[in-house]
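Appendix B. Raw example, untouched.
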Amino acid sequence: MTFCLGIKTKFGIIGLSDTRITSGTETTTSKKVFTVNRDKHSFFIMTSGLRSVRDKAITYFSEVIEEQDQEFTKLYKAVNEFGNQVKRVAKEDQAFLEAGGLSFNLFSIIGGQLEDDKTPKLYLLYPQGNWIEIRRGTPFVSIGNTGAGNPVLRRSLTYEDSLEYALKCAFLAFDATRISANDVDFPIDTVYLENDQYHIVEKRFDKKELEHISEFWNDRIKEGIRALPAEVLMKIFENQEKAAT
């Protein structure tokens, strides 16, 4: 399993992914973000699913980018082409994978801005090659192990928020997932793209750099629970006391 998250705000895009790879009882670390930075052609791809499918699709797509990059003037065109390469891998490998008991299940988050895009775009690409665009109504998308992180985002994130705030939310969503699942862990890879900058900035963080944030957040949650105005809930204990007398 994995954790990958993309966030779109009015100021640009944030992306975050873990790096844990689980195979049977073995765990390793591997990058799950592929980035392209060229003249007014900047985007990233984050994936969740079989590593072999991901690597093959990215390899095929990299060749297309080398040969046809200037044909992609809007991000959706590049998304369509990556979808074509995913379908190509499916034709080659899906039957064999399923015969071996494995599912063809590559999900992808693709974000960026090309020369004719008015603003950065964010897409979720399905294994079948179709996609949806992430818009301001729900300005984030996550793939992989998503259950624990989504409540953090739904409670705290809006399209109007800054990229700095969005990155904090992204980390807390990852941290909630990391605590809840043993197949998601540090290091994490982060990317961001500001409106009309056409350059994706990428940085990796390890546990030692960020564990103080986890500890701070954990302490604040406990303080918040203790400070809850929950007098009405306490009535259950009053009833118990009356029953005992």
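End of appendix B.
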